[in-house]
Amino acid sequence: KGIVGGKVAVITGAGSGIGRAAALRLAEEGARVALVDLKADRVEDLRKRIADAGGEAIAVEADIAKPADIESAVKEAAGKWERLDIVFANAGINGVLAPIETMAPEEWSTTLDINLKGTFLTVKYAVPFLKKNGGSIVITSSINGNRVFSNFGMSAYSTSKAGQVAFMQMAALELAQYGIRVNAVCPGAIKTHIGQNTHPAPELEEIQIPVEYPEGDQPLENGPGRASQVGDLVLFLASDASSHITGTPIFIDGAESLLH
Ligand code: NAD
């Protein structure tokens, strides 16, 4: 039952924010969900919540930037339920925010490794399973992935998010022959925990970093969006209700991008 009833989904970054909200929506609509995150305790809590509500879920601790980790996470999910239909490649970080001049090369690499290479690895290891029945891949990029905003210090983040859109479109072309659709959700500011792991360099202290969400930042909501609203969009893209949509970045930002 449900619009993704019987389907099997892998969700990365399921321990918090957008990934958690999407996992709950997919499970409510009948999907069996593999909850992947660096933080084992967070996905275990969510697994229990879904099981208590009568859903089916497994919690898997994995770092998406490590090939062996994410390969075995995808294999575990597809092995347990003997199929794979939906992949939500969502885990990501803001990383260190610093001017280009002072950003350490290894800080740049960490952001690109998690946000961009981690997305590639998640998709790469899922393709052999998705090919069997077709499926839907959804990637979390950002409005920053389409054109950059005045977010000083976010050169690595914005580059990773733009790279995800290019990768999404290449994957949509390459995988269409197998009936696999690939799309990206591009949120504006959404109230989650992402700001807690953000590290502005001291040079940026004087500059407003979008860790707090000012009122009036988004015309529609007069504030940030909610993770559950992105979860609804992910559910639509994951389901057969979007069966002719592929290769598309979809903004979900309450018209924030039109203000800048
Ligand atoms: P969040 O910090 O609330 O959740 C992210 C989750 O990903 C956390 O549970 C974290 O442990 C996990 N994670 C981080 N690195 C990981 C790794 N290497 N391997 C496995 N798991 C890892 O943040 P969120 O806002 O829900 O972010 C989800 C996605 O949304 C990110 O890709 C982010 O760039 C994107 N995004 C967020 C916003 C926003 O305003 N919150 C806007 C645009 C895009």
From TrEMBL:
Molecular function terms, GO-annotated: oxidoreductase activity
Gene3D superfamilies for this protein: NAD(P)-binding Rossmann-like Domain (3.40.50.720)
InterPro entries tied to this protein: NAD(P)-bd_dom_sf, SDR_fam
Gene Ontology BP terms: bile acid metabolic process
Oxidoreductase among keywords: yes
Keyword flag Oxidoreductase: yes
Full protein name: SDR family oxidoreductase
Family: Belongs to the short-chain dehydrogenases/reductases (SDR) family.
UniProt xrefs under CDD domains: SDR_c (cd05233)
Keywords, comma-separated and alphabetical: Oxidoreductase
Organism encoding this protein: Paenibacillus lycopersici
